[in-house]
Design a protein that fits this description.
Elements (H helix, E strand, L loop, with lengths): L4 H23 L1 H6 L1 H6 L6 H18 L4 H26 L37 E2 L9 E2 L7 H19 L8 H17 L7 E4 L2 E4 H22 L1 H7 L1
Antiparallel strand pairs: 1-2, 3-4
Helix pairs in contact: 1-4, 4-5, 5-6, 5-7, 6-7, 7-8
């Protein structure tokens, strides 16, 4: 299987970009109708869950095509997905690409007193989307800073995903039933994203009077799939251990 990684990555990159763009367009229908060509072909706005869904589908197809054992295959991806997402959010935090939290003008709690102020509320100077007001002196191409500090949610997601990675990495040799590790990832990743959505800026859908984001819907499905996966895999423990 390790000899197929190079080709597989090419497929995954293509699937990830296409999936992330499609999910972003679904979340921003107004932008699509306003300027279809810009919305479709611009690299602005990419959704992680779109990349995860499309990438997972292509990865499983590729694994089956090459006669790989699917459960071992997805288990191998679990820690990688966690650490990869965490590293990706570092880029969001440093660049200020709009993936930040809601306004936060509350005083920093005492239990965070040992941390820098920007870990509680941050105004993202030099953000790449030029959001907020112009400040000077500034010699770079991005001279905007948010008018009101916000929760630095990318920082929180990076921290949580690094913790999830450590947990998954420590469990990888202890869990003998294939597929369980990936199911645990689905639960942890879903909980992480569902919680962060409560303080994160995002487009909201109104469904039966309830306001919910796309990420909340998908993260809820992720948690449910992880729980169902563990139950089914435990029920099939004997056969899985014998055949895998």
């Amino acid at each position: 299987p390790h000899e197929t990684v190079g080709i597989m990555l090419i497929y995954l990159v293509i699937a990830g970009v296409v999936g992330s763009k499609i999910f972003h367009l679904l979340e921003n229908i107004d932008d699509l109708f306003a300027n279809p060509s810009k919305a479709i072909f611009s690299f602005d706005g990419l959704s992680f869950y779109g990349a995860l869904v499309f990438g997972s589908a292509v990865a499983i197809w590729y694994a089956r095509k090459n006669n790989m054992k699917i459960l071992h295959f997805i288990d191998a991806f679990a820690p990688v997905l966690a650490i990869g997402y965490g590293i990706g959010r570092i880029g969001c935090q440093i660049s200020g690409d709009g993936c930040w939290g809601i306004a936060n003008i509350n005083p920093k709690p005492d239990w965070m007193s040992f941390l820098p102020d920007w870990t509680w509320a941050y105004r993202y100077p030099h953000n790449v989307i030029n959001s907020g007001s112009v400040f000077s002196p500034c010699s770079s191409g991005h001279c905007h800073i948010l008018d009101v500090p916000v929760f630095p949610t990318p920082l929180y997601e990076t921290t949580m995903m690094f913790i999830i990675f450590i947990v998954l990495w420590s469990l990888r040799k202890r869990i003998k039933i294939p597929g369980i590790l990936f199911s645990i990832y689905l639960i942890f990743a879903g909980i992480e994203r569902f919680l962060i959505e409560k303080i994160r800026v995002n487009n909201v859908y109104e469904i039966f009077g309830a306001h919910i984001t796309q990420a909340e819907i998908i993260s809820s499905i992720s948690i449910l799939l992880g729980i169902i996966g563990i139950i089914i895999l435990l029920q099939k423990k004997e056969s899985l251990l014998k055949n895998y």
